[in-house]
Amino acid sequence: MTTPNSWLITGASSGIGAALARSVARQGALLFLTARRADQLDSVANDVRSAGAEAVVLPCDLTNAHDTEAMMRDVLARTTPDVVVHNAGRGNCNSIEDTSDATWDDIFALNVDAVFRITRAALPAMRQRNSGHFVTISSVAGRMAFPFNAAYVAAKHAVTGFTAALRTELAGTNIYASIMCPAGVTTNWANATDGGPIGTIFADGIRLSRTIAKERGLPLAPLTPMMSAEAFAHAIVATVERGRSSDVFTHAGTMDHAALAVTDRNALDDAFLPLHLGMQQAYRDNHRS
Ligand SMILES: NC(=O)c1ccc[n+]([C@@H]2O[C@H](COP(=O)([O-])OP(=O)(O)OC[C@H]3O[C@@H](n4cnc5c(N)ncnc54)[C@H](OP(=O)(O)O)[C@@H]3O)[C@@H](O)[C@H]2O)c1
After folding, report:
1. How far is the CA of 27 from the centre of ligand 1 (A)?
2. Which of these, 11, 51, 93, 263, could form a disulfide with 193 (CB 3.0-4.6 Å)?
3. Which atom of ligand 1 is nearest to the CA of 152?
4. Sign of the CA dihedral 184, 160, 110, 284?
5. What's the Cα-to-Cα distance from 173 to each of 125, 164, 234, 240, rounded to whole Å?
6. Is the CB of 185 under 6 A from ligand 1?
7. CB of 4 closer than 6 A to ligand 1?
8. Distance CA 98, CA 103 (A)
9. Ligand 1 near 182 CB (within 6 A)
10. For 236-288, how does the pLDDT look when each residue is reduced to its tens digit (9 = 90+)?
11. Neighbours of 169 (CB within 10 A)
12. Which residues pair with 57 in a beta bridge?
């Protein structure tokens, strides 16, 4: 694909989306930036403009279908984006018994429904031009599971499936759809989870898992180091530059874990047993009233 001129980035107010906007700005593109926090979007847009690119700020709560469709009409009235990055996402931190209907619905509304609506809105214009690239920021949680965020794990599996289905409908065209499955990226994501910070349960769980592994004579769970938002943003740009792309696993070992989830889930669960038990203890400790 030639260098794309226009990008729609959802969740551009912080973390990966903001890092991507700043990175793409150096190519002098036109960027549509959306998320809820207008002040944060303005700050990213100022950086984008300082780098010589054009930025259009479109504050929107993507859990609202009507507002999402209006935001897409605004984008398409200006241009057909070359790249749509489905990046906005939020997790949760609840056991399944503690997950309310509202949490479940909200997690799906953002991580799945918005991706569907934005894609559906952009497709006719992309098809007319016969070019474009959708990039879905799924997660390793869209391929395997971790405890205490079942709504998020289910939503990321759903959005992985949605994007895979999209690819089948785009077969034979010059429009691509890529699935990216990061593990930990150093953003505020793990603190902003619905129901409390899942980052605390992970951190405490990892600490406890060391004792559990030692007591049971088990190897430590195969966790991968965190990656910076900037490094992950570069991986997104590289994925777009590649054009047609198989699923992208940016963190060492995670593709093997995803494969094991298909070929031998018992082995995957066994490998992560000390972490799962550590997180169970951490969740109990954190939710003792
Ligand atoms: N960080 C990780 O370890 C990690 C790992 C795997 C996958 N991911 C995925 O990477 C993506 C980006 O996350 P991040 O790490 O950059 O975290 P982040 O800094 O918390 O970014 C999340 C973005 O989503 C936006 N958002 C949240 N709720 C929204 C809503 N209702 N409407 C519109 N936008 C909304 C936020 O903006 P506002 O709050 O301003 O609306 C923010 O811009 C997410 O899909 C996440 O699931 C992250």
Report:
1. 23
2. 93
3. 47
4. negative
5. 13, 15, 25, 16
6. yes
7. no
8. 10
9. yes
10. 999 999 999 999 999 999 999 999 999 999 999 999 999 999 999 999 999 97
11. 12
12. 33
Q: Looking at ligand 1, which residue's alpha carbon is closest to its atom 8?
A: 139
Catalytic residue chosen out of the listed positions 32, 134, 148, 152: 152
Is 152 among the catalytic positions? yes
Nearest-Å Rg of the Cα atoms of the chain is 19
SS3 of residue 200 by DSSP = helix
Closest protein CA for atom 25 of ligand 1: 11
Query: Tokens standing for 18?
Result: 């903001």
How far away, in angstroms, is 236 Cα from ligand 1 center?
A: 15
- pLDDT tens string 64-81: 999 999 999 999 999 999
Determine contact, residues 117/72, Cβ cutoff 8 Å. yes
Structure tokens, 55: 């930025």
Count of other CB atoms within 10 angstroms of residue 61: 16
> CA neighbours within 13 Å on the CB side: how many for 180?
24
pLDDT digits (tens, 9 = 90+) for 89-143: 999 999 999 999 999 999 999 999 999 999 999 999 999 999 999 999 999 999 9
Q: Walk me through the domains of the chain, giving residue ranges and CATH numbers.
A: 6-196+226-262 (3.40.50.720)
∠ CA 55-18-43, nearest 5°, is 60
CA 129 to chain centre: 27
Tell me, using a 6 A CB cutoff, whether residue 184 lines ligand 1: yes
Taking the CB of residue 62, how many other CB atoms lie within 10 A of it? 25
Nearest to 110 by CA among 166, 41, 74, 156: 156
The answer to whether 105 and 194 are in contact (CB under 8 A) is no
Residues 40/60/73/132 CA torsion (nearest 10 deg) = 60
